[in-house]
Design brief:
The protein has 269 residues and is α/β, with parallel strands linked by helices. It is built from ten helices and 13 strands. The chain has helices spanning 51-66, 108-115, 118-134, 137-143, 153-162, 164-171, 180-188, 198-201, 216-222, 260-268, and strands spanning 7-13, 17-24, 29-36, 48-49, 73-80, 85-89, 99-100, 175-179, 195-197, 207-208, 213-214, 231-233, 254-259. It has a five-stranded mixed beta sheet with strand order 3-2-1-5-13. Strands 4-7 form a two-stranded antiparallel ribbon. The longest helix is centred in the middle third of the chain and has 17 residues, at 118-134. It is globular.
C-alpha cells in the first residue's frame, strides 16, 4: 500500500456494544467488526461491566479487523461512553471492582442526602449572591449545582467508603481511577500511560472546565482523592504506543482519545 492507503485503527466502546474498524485517511471504512457488551446487574439498580470480559472483546476485535493490514497501520484512535469508571492497583493492574457504568443507581441515597443538605443549600445561595456581585462564572455555576447518579463523584465516593482495599491503596499511593478510555490506554500501553482527555474529564463533575484541571474544591467536597486521578491531555495528544507485549504484530501510537458524543460532532463536520 502507498502513502494514500495508510490506515488508522479505530476503537469505540459504547454501553451495550463495542466495535473496531480500520479506516483510511479519507474516512473510508476498510474493515469493521462489532461485539455486544453484557451489562451485569448483581443488585437491583446496579449496572456493571466485567473488565476481563471487556478486555477480551477489545483484543479480539483489534485482531479481527487488523489481520492483513498490520504493516499499513499508522495510528490508533479511541472513542468511549463517558462516566463509566473503574479503579485498579497501580503496581499490578489488578482491578478492585467491575466497571460501574453511568446507568448505575447505587449512589442515589448519597446524592439525595448531599443535594438536600442545609449547608449545601446555604452554600448555593452564597455562591449565587457572590457570583452576581462579582460576575464570577464559577460562582454562578456552583449556585445551581446538584449531584446526580450519572455523574461520577458520588459513585466514586461509594467505592472509597465501601471497598476497604480502595482506601488502603489510595493511602499507599497505589490506586488508579479511570473511565473507560483511561483504563483502555493503560492496558494498550502496558501500563505506561495513565491519562484521559478533556472531553471525558469534563463530564466527571470534579473537573474545572475553565482551568482545565481537576478541581481540588470539588474533589474535597465529594471525598474523591486527588492522587488517584489521571493526567488530562488534549484529545489529539500522544497517548503512548500499543505495547509489544500484546502480540498484535504491530505497535502504533494512540493519537486520539475522545468521548463518543464529542467524536460524533467532530465526525459530522
Amino acid at each position: 500500500m502507498g502513502v494514500a492507503d495508510e490506515l488508522i485503527l479505530s476503537i469505540d466502546v459504547g454501553t451495550t456494544n463495542c466495535r473496531a474498524a480500520v479506516i483510511s485517511k479519507t474516512g473510508v471504512i476498510v474493515k469493521i467488526a462489532y461485539r455486544p457488551i453484557e451489562l451485569l446487574s448483581p443488585i437491583q439498580g446496579w449496572f456493571e461491566i466485567c473488565p476481563k470480559v471487556l478486555w477480551g472483546i477489545i483484543l479480539d476485535l483489534i485482531k479481527t479487523v487488523t489481520a492483513g493490514y498490520e504493516s499499513s497501520l499508522r495510528a490508533c484512535g479511541i472513542s468511549v461512553q463517558r462516566n463509566t469508571f473503574i479503579t485498579w492497583k497501580k503496581d499490578t493492574g489488578e482491578y478492585l471492582h467491575n466497571f460501574i457504568t453511568w446507568l448505575d443507581m447505587r449512589s442515589t441515597s448519597l446524592c439525595e442526602s448531599w443535594n438536600n443538605n442545609c449547608f449545601i443549600s446555604l452554600g448555593r445561595w452564597a455562591a449565587w449572591a457572590i457570583g452576581s456581585i462579582v460576575r464570577s462564572r464559577h460562582m454562578i455555576c456552583a449556585a445551581s449545582f446538584n449531584v446526580k447518579e450519572k455523574a461520577i463523584p458520588m459513585r466514586l465516593k461509594w467505592v472509597m467508603d465501601n471497598i476497604p482495599e480502595a482506601k488502603k491503596c489510595q493511602k499507599d499511593d497505589n490506586l488508579c481511577f479511570g473511565t473507560i478510555e483511561t483504563w483502555l490506554v493503560w492496558k494498550l500501553t502496558g501500563g505506561k500511560v495513565w491519562a484521559t482527555d478533556f472531553s471525558c474529564a469534563s463530564s466527571t463533575g470534579i473537573f474545572d472546565i475553565w482551568k482545565l484541571t481537576w478541581c481540588p474544591v470539588m474533589t474535597t467536597l465529594f471525598g474523591n482523592p486527588m492522587n488517584i486521578l489521571p493526567e488530562v491531555r488534549c484529545s489529539n495528544s500522544f497517548f503512548g504506543l500499543l505495547d509489544e507485549s500484546l502480540n498484535l504484530g504491530f505497535s502504533i501510537p494512540i493519537t486520539g482519545v475522545i468521548g463518543d458524543q464529542q467524536a460524533s460532532i467532530f465526525g459530522s463536520q
